[in-house]
């Protein structure tokens, strides 16, 4: 059975505006100014703890405050309604078609598992996925290959396609030894040409042909 595993933020959904809102609420409580969206996006990709540490470094906040601020941002984000988080155009159609064809689908994200599941629920996407793994599900997070390999399970690596938007995703796929499809319109920091990938696409309506190309390798 073919398996397709997706990153979440910057791949299936554009969640940066809601992440920014949660970070800025915490900053307001600390008497600090807002961060703009491009800055927050530049901090996204390695999980919430790394994002919070980057925010702290930006404002020269002492490391001793990390646990408190990390917990606060997570609490704010978990309590949000995700009103500014949207699917990229064509995602639902693609997931529906793949699911109907019997393709095994999963999510492997560095977002903590609880808010990842909340986002999928809020966008009515949970029904499509057999497994969801977050950045805190196991003791390691991407780019360590452990979370992706756990999602893959007993499936042959040759039958797996991993889909992501970032340098972290590209490195995760490389370490896991699976085929990587790069969604070029997410939160990557590097030029497409500088990121290792087996195939790429810029619009989700192109993705089904990517899956077909993987099947005939």
Q: Can you describe what's shown?
A:
Pathway: Organic acid metabolism; glycolate biosynthesis; glycolate from 2-phosphoglycolate: step 1/1. This is phosphoglycolate phosphatase. Its cofactor is Mg(2+). Keywords: Carbohydrate metabolism, Hydrolase, Magnesium, Metal-binding. It catalyses: 2-phosphoglycolate + H2O = glycolate + phosphate. The chain is an alpha/beta fold and 217 residues long. It folds into 2 domains: 3-14 and 86-215, Rossmann fold (3-Layer(aba) Sandwich), CATH 3.40.50; 16-79, DNA polymerase, domain 1, CATH 1.10.150. The protein contains 9 helices and 8 strands. The protein has helices spanning 16-29, 37-43, 48-58, 66-79, 91-100, 113-122, 146-152, 167-176, 207-215, and strands spanning 3-6, 13-14, 86-87, 104-108, 131-133, 160-164, 179-183, 199-201. It has a 6-stranded parallel beta sheet, sandwiched between helices. Helix 1 packs across helix 4 (66-79) and helix 3 crosses helix 4 (66-79).
Would you summarize the structure shown here?
Its cofactor is Mg(2+). This protein is an alpha/beta fold.
Total number of helices: 9
How is the main sheet built?
6 strands, parallel
Question: In percent, how helical is the residue content?
Answer: 40-55%
Q: Tell me the name of the CATH homologous superfamily of the largest domain.
A: HAD superfamily/HAD-like
User: What is the domain total for the residues?
Assistant: 2
Describe the protein's topology.
Blueprint: E1 3-6, E2 13-14, H1 16-29, H2 37-43, H3 48-58, H4 66-79, E3 86-87, H5 91-100, E4 104-108, H6 113-122, E5 131-133, H7 146-152, E6 160-164, H8 167-176, E7 179-183, E8 199-201, H9 207-215
Parallel strand pairs: 1-4, 1-6, 4-5, 6-7, 7-8
Antiparallel strand pairs: 2-3
């Amino acid at each position: 059975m073919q398996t397709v595993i997706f990153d979440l933020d910057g791949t299936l959904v554009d969640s940066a505006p809601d992440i920014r809102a949660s970070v800025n609420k915490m900053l307001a409580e600390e008497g600090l100014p807002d961060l703009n969206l491009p800055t927050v996006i530049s901090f996204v990709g390695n999980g919430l703890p790394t994002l919070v540490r980057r925010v702290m470094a930006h404002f020269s906040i002492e490391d001793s405050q990390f646990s408190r601020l990390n917990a606060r941002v997570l609490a704010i984000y978990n309590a949000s309604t995700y009103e500014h988080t949207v699917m990229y155009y064509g995602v639902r159609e693609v997931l529906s078609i793949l699911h109907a064809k019997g393709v095994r689908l999963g999510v492997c994200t560095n977002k903590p598992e609880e808010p990842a599941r909340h986002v999928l629920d809020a966008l009515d996407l949970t029904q499509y996925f057999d497994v969801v793994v977050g950045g805190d599900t196991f003791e390691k997070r991407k780019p360590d290959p452990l979370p992706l390999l756990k999602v893959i399970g007993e499936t042959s690596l040759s039958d797996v396609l991993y889909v992501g938007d970032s340098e972290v995703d590209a490195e995760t796929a490389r370490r896991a030894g699976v085929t990587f499809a790069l969604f070029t319109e997410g939160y990557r920091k590097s030029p497409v040409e500088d990121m290792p990938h087996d195939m790429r696409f810029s619009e989700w309506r192109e993705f089904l042909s990517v899956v077909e190309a993987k099947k005939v390798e």
